Amino acid sequence: MKIVAHFEIPYYQILNEAQELVADLPSFAKDPAHLIRLYRLMVLNRLFDAKAIALQRTGKLGTYPSTLGQEAAFVGMGDALSKNDVIVPYYRDVGILIQRGVKLSEILLYWGGDERGNAFANKENFPYSVPVGSQPLHAAGVATAFKIRKEKRAVLTVCGDGGTSEGDFYEAMNVAGVWKLPVVFAVCNNQWAISVPRSEQTAAQTLAQKAIAAGFSGEQVDGNDVIAVRDRVTLALEKAREKSEPTLIEIICYRQNDHTTADDAKRYEKAKVREQEWEKEPIARLRRYLESIKAWSEKEEKELQVTSEAEIEKSVAEYLATPLAPLENMFDYLYATLPESLEEQRELLKQWGNTHG
Ligand SMILES: Cc1ncc(C[n+]2csc(CCOP(=O)(O)OP(=O)(O)O)c2C)c(N)n1
Ligand SMILES: [Mg+2]
Predict the structure, then answer these.
(1) Which fold has domain 11-324?
(2) Given pLDDT bands bounded at 50, 70 and 90, which one contains residue 355?
(3) For ligand 1, is residue 190 a contact (CB within 6 Å)?
(4) Does 46 qualify as catalytic in the annotation?
């Protein structure tokens, strides 16, 4: 007998939960202004999240998927992207999208049930993908186009831990490996797929090792450490652009809220786990670090809360003032050419009067 294959899955962390630097700072993180920018975005993400949930609770928004506790993952990824890269998101990517020219009011519009909110004003962005695991295939397609056109651009796509069990996910990984595609698969492992815990999702020791079967490297990163997330995703995107090699990055974090506003995690999540995980949460971690290097003060914190709230309130006002979409919009976004049967239904709807309620 001989061993024919070996593999290792590294885990990366730079700023740990005790706000200690456990690895060298990457050059971007030596600039406090850059870290402050990331901090501001994470705070905006968290306050927006709370507002969206309040809107849902008062009947002004549809279902909303919270990103509480996961802000570092999305903000870090968004900051790692270069202007010419493409993001193929899932549905928790507020922290990325706000860095790609998507307006907060558009995000509210989408979760308010209006498909126009998904046709982002910035047309370079792909829309949300709610069908779990479908978007890695779209990303592989975009990356194939870049490769054929010899463009030095990378694609980033995000899915959850549950998404890695879908056939589409494996197909995307396989084709990325065999065609050497410039794509980064980020898996936001928040330990839950609605009520299914990570331990029941897959018997694999890590999700990162799913890349090994497809012939490229996989790694884990502390998803509560925005510096490490930003650094690892930046390096993987560079590798994609320069060498046309894919990477899988498993971002370890914890879902600090129900799956969506339509869920009640108390029915399946053990009490106290959130509290324990909260010790690691990303915003306080970075804030304490910034304070320790004298780059942030109580006064700046107060100002940030005020300016972020004002920005959010403005977006809410814009969202609430948006006239309702015509009902026939429901036919408008799936087909380039509408099949005859649906064309008929669209006409009927028009004849019956295009009114809501
Ligand atoms: C193909 C498909 N199957 C089932 C669902 C219902 N569903 C929505 S989210 C979800 C769980 C996804 O969990 P995960 O991939 O870990 O992402 P998370 O929501 O935790 O970020 C499921 C099963 C769906 N949207 N699409
Ligand atoms: Mg999950």
Answers:
(1) Rossmann fold (3.40.50)
(2) low
(3) yes
(4) no
